[in-house]
Specification:
The chain has 15 helices and 25 strands. The chain is an alpha/beta fold and about 550 residues long. The structure holds flavin-adenine dinucleotide. Flavin-adenine dinucleotide (FAD) binds next to helix 1, helix 4, strand 9 and helix 10.
Length: about 550
């Protein structure tokens, strides 16, 4: 299988060569890079903005692993399977929970400092869906910032590792056998590597993070535009479980016009005893689930949305006033500062919260070694679908997944290199030219895509709402084609490439979500409110139709 479609872009003006090119500099990408370097492979990390600009830096709550006394990987497995609502790949989960504790220890050895008790043991908290305290955290609620700091510092001190910042990766390059052979990218800067270029490599690893920016309100940073999934689709790879977008229940509500990245109020705040209440102060999670406020995220997000509908309100409230000022300052300094910067003091005030897009449980389909369905193309972290999360991610399993599967990819690349199975690849220039060029939407399309997706394919979905979203997305696609036909195409640049990626990912997501006629995990259909195991205990696999370039979702064989 070779690349069938590519983004409209100028021909590469420069070329570089490496052994492994890693796209993305979050927990997943940097872990792959550091580990392949141990095997003596040359590695290049390409990242869209600065090294620490992905979701990793924003993670608050922590990282889940069976590290506590009395806890076991088996119990972590059970909680993960329950959250995944029948669609987890049990072998993938078993890999995650058994290799997880060592992966956290490796991270500590790399320099990440977790919060410790007086005896020097790692402090563990609880989050939704976990029956034990098993979430390690750093700086109270600044876990991601500490992980990012430690990994960025480690990669910066390896002179053999090439780091290219402010570089947007566009498309995959393959050799004559359809094996990944590198990628094209656009470097924003000046110097020898300015503009569109190509990096040739023996293998390509996608670690581009999530796609929260397809929705109007999200916890994800601006770089989370689903580029990796879009690239993989254009390269002929299978993606899966796209319909399972986790909406975080407690995102600070900043008013009806708020757009883009919104501040998160971590689940750990509920883990430490904060309550969800309505405007009258009534705790509405009691009696809805045995874990009340700590029920899995989809249950809490749905309960909040139902309450909002019932009260005609735009948000509900989180009550952590009983923590007192010391606990807020020591345990949740980041959240306290963020709330106060928006005029809300959690020590004395209720915190207004509403659900917002948070995590893509689906992504590029991989096996347990991180291999995608395109040879030589790997994926890990949020962009990948390893099968760990099923229909809903268990809180704090994502940083862990990034670590564990990044280590596995590096081990696979190392083994292949040692066995002489990772030769240099010659790019098939004819195949690259033959790939159809995707017309680019105007930069303003981004806001329109987000509006369409939040209106019709957000927490609440129905056939009618998604048909309207799909029609709006199709219209945007037609406009881009018409502009091309009129010889007035949008300029190829970062904004239009990102808009094209958002458009493709949104179209694929809606195609899958419309097809899944049931409610499961974080996919909530108003018109099909029940889980339907007889028809839907299976995954939807999405690929790009070669002729039309539109995403097609097919249910996996049962
Ligand atoms: C506010 C918030 C709180 C969270 N809290 C937790 C938590 O407590 N525990 C937990 O386990 N998870 C948490 N998560 C989820 C977790 O942080 C992410 O799933 C995880 O960090 C993803 O890591 P990653 O390496 O896959 O991607 P990211 O860290 O998002 O990195 C992606 C990288 O890819 C780059 N990139 C993207 N597209 C391109 C392109 N075209 N070209 C070049 N580079 C590109 C980006 O610039 C970035 O460097 C949270 C997420 C958010 C947003």
């Amino acid at each position: 299988m070779s690349v069938t479609h590519r983004l409209t872009a100028p021909a590469p003006g420069w070329t570089a060569t490496t052994d492994v090119v890693v796209v993305g500099s979050g927990v997943a990408g940097l872990t792959v890079a550091l580990n392949v370097r141990k095997a003596g492979l040359r590695a290049t990390v390409v990242t869209k903005a600065m090294l620490d600009d992905g979701s990793t830096r924003w993670a608050q709550g922590g990282i889940a692993a069976a590290l506590g006394e009395g806890d076991t990987p088996e119990q972590h497995l059970d909680d993960t399977l329950v959250a995944g609502a029948g669609l987890c790949d049990e072998e993938a989960v078993r890999t995650l929970v058994t290799e997880g504790p060592d992966a956290v220890r490796h991270l500590i050895a790399t320099g990440a400092a977790f919060d410790l008790d007086a005896e020097g043991e790692i402090l563990l908290t609880r989050e939704g869906g976990h029956h034990r305290r098993r979430i390690a955290h750093a700086g109270g609620d600044a876990t991601g910032a500490e992980i990012s700091r430690a990994l960025v510092s480690a990669v910066r001190s390896d002179p053999g590792l090439e780091l290219i910042e402010h570089a947007l990766v566009l498309d995959l390059l393959t050799d004559a056998e359809g094996h990944a052979a590198g990628l094209t990218l656009h470097v924003m800067g000046e110097g020898q590597r300015d503009g569109v270029g190509a990096i040739r490599a023996r293998a390509v690893v996608l670690a581009t993070g999530g796609m929260g920016q397809v929705f109007s309100a999200t916890t994800n940073p601006a770089v989370s535009t689903g580029d990796g999934v879009a690239l993989a689709l254009r390269a002929g790879a299978e993606v899966t479980d796209l319909e399972f977008v986790q909406f975080h229940p407690t995102v600070l509500w900043l008013g009806p016009e708020a757009e883009g990245q919104q501040p998160l109020v971590s689940e750990a705040v509920r883990g430490e005893g904060a309550h969800l209440v309505d405007a009258e102060g009534t705790r509405f999670m009691l009696g809805q689930h045995e874990l009340a406020e700590l029920a899995p995220r989809d249950i809490v997000a749905k309960a909040i949305t139902r309450q909002m509908q019932a009260h005609g309100a735009e948000h509900m409230y989180l009550d952590g006033r009983h923590f007192g000022p010391e606990m807020w300052a020591e345990r949740f300094p980041t959240i306290l500062a963020s709330c106060r910067s928006h005029g809300i003091d959690p020590v004395t005030d209720l915190i207004p919260v509403a659900p917002a897009a948070h995590y893509a449980s689906g992504g590029i389909r991989t096996d347990l070694l991180g291999r995608t369905t395109v040879p030589g193309l790997y994926a890990c972290g949020e962009v990948a679908c390893t099968g760990v999360h099923g229909a809903n991610r268990l809180a704090s399993n994502s940083l862990l997944e990034g670590l564990v599967f990044a280590e596995r990819i590096a081990a696979d690349l190392t083994a292949r290199h040692t066995a002489g199975e990772l030769p240099e690849r010659a790019v098939d220039v004819a195949a690259t030219r033959a790939a159809q060029s995707v017309p680019l939407p105007a930069p303003e399309a981004r806001a329109e895509i987000q509006r369409l997706m939040s209106t019709g394919a957000g927490v609440l979905r129905s056939a009618a709402s998604m048909a309207a979203t799909a029609a709006g997305l199709a219209r945007l696609g037609e406009q881009a084609h018409a502009q091309l036909a009129d010889e007035k195409p949008a300029d190829p640049r970062v904004e239009t490439w990102e808009a094209a990626n958002l458009h493709l990912v949104a179209t694929a997501l809606v195609a899958a979500a419309a097809q899944r006629e049931e409610t499961r995990g974080c996919h909530w259909r108003e018109d099909f409110p029940e889980r339907d195991d007889a028809h839907w205990q299976r995954h939807l696999i999405t690929t790009l139709a070669t002729a039309t370039g539109t995403p097609v979702s097919t249910p996996e064989e049962q």
